[in-house]
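Quick question, first post here. What does this chain look like in 3D?
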Amino acid sequence: MNSREEIKAIVESQRAFFKTNTTLDLSYRIDALKKLKAMVISHEKEMEEALEKDLGRHYVEAYFCDIGSIILEINETIAGLKKWARAAQRVSIAQPCLKRWWTKPSHLTTLQLLTAAMMWLTSAWKSALIKSFTLVLQR
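> Answer (accepted):
Ran it through. Tokens below.
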């Protein structure tokens, strides 16, 4: 087991590395994920043994519930990373919504209704709600 000093030194080393901004590069992230996947696959037997010893899991259960899930998550992250890292496109929905609010109230969608109501809130709340709607629209 590592001592507190060793753990503290490891954490400081990782923080210093993170501050170099090396991890911002997409190719670095993808390479790191591929290395993690290779490590999980190469240490599959040790992980199965540890899960059996600690939790009493059969090796098949350990693979399907834990090890295989980790590999799938890594694969999904690698596949989606380029899309997730793209610059966000912001869409303003407030102006069209306000026009429809007064002219065609029967055609309001929930999002338009909430956006129109949001316009009456204080500026701090408005800003926060617009950000949350922007996140919803990005998905």
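The two ends are 43 Å apart (CA to CA).
The mean pLDDT is 76.
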